[in-house]
Each structure stands twice: as C-alpha cells, then as structure tokens.
C-alpha cells in the first residue's frame, strides 16, 4: 500500500438504515402492510399473516415522528451522506395501484429536505427487505412477471419526484439474499420450507429486469444519476490448500457474484448457465430482456460487508459451523467473533474491495458495515462502546489500504448509525448505533436518544476525512 493513500476529497462518510427497521408508524399515513410487518421474528423465520405476535418492526424506533431530531444528530456527526430506503407500502400500499399515495411521498419529501438542509447527500435504496403483502398473496411475489411492472411504476414515481435532489440510488438491497431468505428477498412462500430453486432464480431474473428498467428510467431523467446494485458481500477462503477446497470456495463466492455480474456486466455468466443446465432450471424470459440487461447496467457496486467465510470438502470441517448476516459457514480458527457469532475480519474487506474492483472496474460504495453488540448504560449515563470503535477502526484502516491498492471507493455508510430493529432477529438488544435508543426488544423504554462514546470518535474520523482514526 502506498503510504500516501488517502480518502479522496468528497468521500461520502455517513450511515445506513432501512425503513422497516426504524420508521415504525406501520399503519399511519395510508401505509399498507409489508412483508416486514408480518415477520415478527426476523427475516429468516416464516411469516405470521395472523399478526397475533408482538412485532417490533411495527414501532421501530419511531423515526417516522423523530426524523428531524435524528437527522440533526447525524448532522452533528458530520455526515456527508445518509443511506435510507423508501417503504414501498407507503407509496403503493397494495403495490398494484395506478396512482401513488401522496401522504407517503410527502413524508419522504420532508426527510430529503431535512437532509439537504444540513448538506447531507441522500442515498436511496428503492427496495430494502420489504414489499407489499398484497403482492405476495395475490401474485406470489417476485416469481410473477407482473411484479416487474409494479416495481417499475414505484421506481419511476420516486425517480421522477427526486431526481433533481438525489444523485445516488440503489435498486435492491442485498439482492443475493433472495437465495437465503426468499420471503424477505422476494415475497416467495414454499410449503414445508423447501426452497424451490426454479422459483428463486425466476424471481431473481425478474428483479434483474426491474433493476435495469429503473436504471433506464433514472438515466433518461438525469444522465448524472448514479444508480447502483447492492449485494451482501463476503469473501470465502478455502479451509486448506487442498485444490477441492479452493474450488468449493470459488463456487461459494460465485453464488454472490452472479447477482452483481448480471447487473454490472449485463449478461448471465457461463458458470451460471452451466449450473442451470445441471439442475434443470429453465428461466422464462421475454423478448428484449437480455438487451435490457445489457444496455442498462449499474453505475457502481454497493455492498454490505460484515464477515468472511470458509469453505471445505471435509465433512469434519463442515460440522464446525458459525453464522453471520443470514448465512452460515465454517468457523475460521484465525478470527474472533461478535456476540452473535459473526466472524470479524477487517482484512477481508480490503480483499473484497480489490476482488470487486478487479472484476467490474466500476466505483464501489460500502453501504453497510458495523458491529451488533449489547450496550450498557453506565451509572453516569455514558455508554463505553470501545469494542465498536475497535471494529470500525480496523475496517476503515483496511478501506484506506484498498484505496492505496487503486480501488475507486465512493463512500462508507456504516450500518445503523442509530440503534434500530435487527433484521435477522427482530430485536433491539443487538445494537449498531453511535446513538443509543432507550427502547428494548419488547418495545419498552423512553425512546430517548443518547450519544455513545463511538459518536465523538466517528465525528472526529469524518472531520479528518479518515486521516485520524
């Protein structure tokens, strides 16, 4: 790494959230029911359409009513960018309406104006782990081609309304999670939990086309817009130098890279065509789909990075499983793990940056990275989260090295700058924020915001453009 490596001028430091994890107000402003509203136990659990159980997503941290105070805190942190998502069900409550819900749009008008007031760049994810329940029940989710049209309408409404105010967009959050959490990723339901790969990959194709249509619409409105894809990214190491382990690791990584390959390169890769053939998967395509994918590729690669994985062909090694960000893998003996078993690998972030940039030669945007941990409020009211500072510090150091390696990095929006409801477990005990929210997993508490030790630390990092960690 060059000793002169620096974060570029205008680097987008900030934080990232999702509508369903912090807004609350799930029945206000004309909002319809989303898949998150019927997932009380997190995104890996089956949905509960009866809605009998308490669901923390319904209340979130009440950002719907506190956004002005919260954005003021982000401004105090010195944020250059704030990544958030727009709830599909606030704009089209059922998903298949012809005209949008103006009340829902007005809420996001206000959020965007508030960000711009402080000079914070809004970064919008169009679809982040929620879609209208009506589209699941009536159409079967993303396996139905009609949903492409509904999404295109939704995306166009947002792009037309905000293209003069919002430069950075992402189409689908962690689009590859469709493989692991098909209900959350695509509104897909399977009997007895048996995942039907044909349906999953058909849904993926529909999302690829929908994403390309959004890119097309955005660029037609404003050629300066930057519209990216977003993948849940990780690197997979072979457990040993055994050649079979190496190929297994490659195959594992391809499951993720397939999703960015199609959106960034504009075509289905040969390895995936081979996989489809071997597994009897036949994707139904319409005339013009492949041209659409080829002509309307994304401008940048957005990705989350929390951990790395290990792959092996040895049954004894395969038994040593650990979990992380909706996936499981083999435990890496060289790494420590978070309280939730997510293995901590800062060097893996540098590796992923290099791997993605080598592959696509398009700008990268790290739009999620952070440490979920149990925080304790001390007797004096302080929260000493040095463990979070250590985690972020190590990852930012490796980002800087990646820039020194020649990687074009747009920005870094760490996950959950304010505590919010966990996607994987639907609890608040697992906290990511620089800002503590006095609310527990049962929804009890004052909802008061408290700055953690990491607040001042990150503020200083941003103020020095990453020079002083």
Automatic annotation (TrEMBL):
Record-level GO BP terms: carbohydrate catabolic process
SUPFAM superfamilies per the UniProt record, alphabetical: (Trans)glycosidases
Keyword Transcription part of the UniProt annotation: no
UniProt xrefs under PROSITE patterns: GLYCOSYL_HYDROL_F1_1, GLYCOSYL_HYDROL_F1_2
GO molecular function: beta-glucosidase activity
Record keywords, A-Z: Glycosidase, Hydrolase
Family: Belongs to the glycosyl hydrolase 1 family.
Protein name (record): 6-phospho-beta-glucosidase
Native organism: Halalkalibacter hemicellulosilyticusJCM 9152
